Amino acid sequence: MEKIKSSVGKAPEQTKTPDIEKDYQNAIKELKDIYKSDSRLTDFLSRVLMFVRAGVLEDADVSKVTGFLCEDKTKKRLSEFLEKASPLAKKIVDFVWSNPAGFEKIERDIFNRDGAFTPVNEVLSYGVDEEKSFLHLHVPPCKTVQNKVSLLKEGLAEIAEVVQDNENIERITGTSWIVAQNPNLLRRLGFTIGGKEKTYKRLLRSSFLGNEKPVGSAFMERNDFLARYLKQRNNS
């Protein structure tokens, strides 16, 4: 992963707003929950390492946490964990505020890695379910990305080649906040809207921040998708 340029560790004084202070508090609450679960601790460390590779965190900072977690579990204390992990959380929250685009890039990497998705571009990834004969579209974090619609169309045209090469794919599907938020866009792209699904909590464990968004579903059959996007790809 390429290093992301940013000054971290101390956010500019003008950003010390009640909102960032609230994010610091939420980070501590999240760390307390993480500490209760071995699986979440493992997940926490794997995500923290993504920030090390991006140059946001230092190896020395992370080694204090990993060293603590390797100790005898009966001797561990939550207060000690918070003492060692809180500086990491604070640096990440500062990075979210000082470099939202850089943070979002790391989030996309985590999103695609955790879901085992294939990235197409900044706004589109996909996964193939051979058993159910469908290709599922995914929209990674892309709030700061410009020209989303153009990138979306370009990505769909690229995916058309994947569909053409895999005869087992019978349907292209998507379940995302973008369907619920802008169903007309999906209709213009040729998809049938399946309606709103549930409301889900998108917890950004890499930043200790989260929110709830409604999601919707959309789909397009194989032949319709190829007729629309393979031609577009060939004409580009």
Short description:
This protein has 236 residues and is α+β, with helices and mostly antiparallel strands.
Structural notes for this entry:
The chain has two domains: 13-98, no CATH class; 117-235, Gcn5-related N-acetyltransferase (GNAT) (Aminopeptidase), CATH 3.40.630.30. Helix content is 53%, strand content 20%. The chain has helices at 18-35, 38-53, 59-69, 78-98, 100-115, 148-165, 177-181, 183-188, 222-235; strands at residues 118-121, 124-129, 134-138, 171-176, 192-204, 209-221. A six-stranded mixed beta sheet has the order 1-2-3-4-6-5. α3 packs antiparallel against α4.
Specify the CATH homologous superfamily of the largest domain.
Gcn5-related N-acetyltransferase (GNAT)
User: Which class best fits the helix and strand makeup?
Assistant: alpha+beta
Assigned CATH class of the largest domain: Alpha Beta
Radius of gyration: 20 Å
Shape: elongated
The percent range for strand residues is: 15-25%
Low-confidence stretches: 5-15, 197-209
Corresponding CATH architecture of the largest domain: 3-Layer(aba) Sandwich
CATH fold group of the largest domain: Aminopeptidase
Mean of all residue-level pLDDT scores: 83
Number of strands: 6
User: Helical content, roughly?
Assistant: 40-55%
Q: List SSEs in N-to-C order.
A: HHHHHEEEHEHHEEH
Number of helices: 9
